[in-house]
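Pipeline run #58 for the internal structure catalog. This entry was flagged by the ingest filter as a single-chain record with no existing model, so it goes straight to prediction. Upstream metadata was stripped on purpose; only the residue string is passed forward. Reviewer on rotation: M.T. Logging verbosity set to normal.
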Amino acid sequence: MDTITIIIGVVALIVGAVAGLFFGKSSLNTKAQYVVEDAKKTAENIIEKANVQAEAVRKEKHLQAKEKFLELKSQHDADIQSRERKMQETEKRTKDKENKLNDELSKAGKLEKDLERQVSDYNKKLEVVQKKQQDLEVATAQKVEMLEKISNYSAEEAKTELVESLKAEAKTKASAHVQSIMEEAQLNAKNEARKIIIQTIQRIGTEQAVENSVSVFNIESDEIKGRIIGREGRNIRALEAATGVEIIVDDTPEAILLSCFDPVRREIARLSLHRLVTDGRIHPARIEEVVEKTRKQIEEEIIEVGKRTIIDLGIHGLHPELVKVVGRMKFRSSYGQNLLQHSREVANIAATMAAELGLNVKLAKRAGLLHDIGKVPEQESELPHALLGMQWAEKYGENAEVINAIGAHHDEIEMTSLLSPIIQVADAISGARPGARRQVLESYIQRLKDLEAAALSFEGVSSAYAIQAGRELRVMVESGKVNDENAHQLSYDISEKIQNELTYPGQVRVTVIRETRSVNIAR
């Protein structure tokens, strides 16, 4: 307030000075006094108003502070009440638990007393039983002794003879029962399986593809052979080094042989030769350039073949690396059967079987197409192709059922879904149909010998003959050593041994033949 008074006084002096300039020195003091008095009155009014306003602000702030205090106090009281209520609830729960625990302890004490009483009763009953058992053993010993005197047999001798007779009778009845059950099950299973397989084969037409390890490149005249060989053999050596294929130039008219076990390399060499002969410029630098371009073209063709295959089969979402592997199968063969054609065939057969059985057709196609991807590795691997293919499928995020079907189609791992046996059966159908595969004569003969040897290893077998390309085994038995009932058991045992110890395509029927001949000569 003192500052405002000083400011007003200064303003009054300034006003007085200004007034003096206008009214002259004579009237300066009078008018200055009037101005000062007006200024003082104005200052007093301003001060009075400021005091009133300050008092109003003070009262308002005091009122607000009081309201805030009451609000905080109310909130604090509510918090205290809430805490007290929670403490009361906690104390109540604790008391309830304590009462419940006391009740359980009381019940446990009663149960313990009941248990002790039951144990005591049990011990008394056990003593009675033991005494009766001792009396029974004495009575049994007396009766056994009496029976031994009457029958002139000891107890062990009688027991042995009885066990042997019962064992022979039980074995005969069990064999007949097992044979009856198996015949009934096989009849039902064969009828249903035959129906599905026949329908599948009838609905699917297959092509026969035979691949060799040698390709023939035809030329227009024998003059081109010299240009391919080059001066001192430089051209042919450069071509063999670039392609990894052995090029055989002999006296065969208008033909050059390309020899390699890798069909992809043979195809690269064939196309490269065709381009070089067509262009006419054959020298080592040109050979390397053409081979590199051809190799890139084949890689692009492999990817295109893979994409076209999965589109034809209606398979979606296959990893690009698996698409490339599928394309490489076009240039591979297995037992003379084109691998891509075989995989497409297995996919269609598996899809048909899955549809007949009410399973997922898309997964069946997927597993059928991928089941042999382990046969086309870019680098050599020591794993079986089924396990290698299973690892690739797992690496590239395939379905668990597809992974198991790939790994189990040659029984390397245990089957965990119904899709796995379908892929195995479809693979066998595609590979075992007439003309599908070529088989080396020595391995074929060895398989027939192994079948006959498996049958001859059993007692009572006089001869065995593998017929129908090893799909049936006729077993002749000696009638004196093998009766009709044992013949059924023998056929079952031979089939089990073949199944567990030998490798064969499809299935093998075991037929046991027993006959009795009576021969007399009329003279």
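catalog note: Strands lie at 214-218, 246-248, 255-259, 333-334, 337-338, 461-467, 472-477, 509-513.
catalog note: The chain is about 70% helix and 5% strand.
status: ready for reviewer M.T.
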